[in-house]
Amino acid sequence: MLHDRLLVELDREASERRSASGIVIPATAVLGKRLAWAQVVAAGPSVRQVSIGDRVLFDPEDRSEVEVAAHDYILLRERDVHAVAEHGEPASDLGLYL
After folding, report:
1. Measured distance CA(50)–CA(7) in Å, rounded
2. Gene3D superfamilies from the entry (predicted)?
């Protein structure tokens, strides 16, 4: 990877979602602008705030898809990442907050 580029793999559960009542919503359904989670597979030398193995939140409309060794990946710039998920479990029983 060069410069500030990230190679990410989409989460497998991102293809189908369930509503609060249990209805399955296919990935092809248009629900407005929705961000997606992905796992970082590789990072360029200029990437500062994201590490390999992190889960990142990004806009799936601003992506470039690439196939490497028969696997589909997405190529992003670090500035296109909206959030990085914390590693491990939270330290207290307070729950998760955004």
Report:
1. 11
2. GroES chaperonin
Tokens of 71: 């696997």
Is 27 in contact with 65 (CB distance < 8 Å)?
A: no
Q: Report helix, strand or coil for 10.
A: strand
Q: Rounded distance, CA 52 to CA 98, Å?
A: 22
**Assessment of whether the complete model's pTM goes beyond 0.70:** no
What does the block give as tokens for 57?
Answer: 């939140």
Three-state SS for 73?
strand
Domains of the chain: 5-84 (2.30.33.40)
pLDDT under 70 in the chain at which residues? Answer: 12-19, 25-32, 87-98
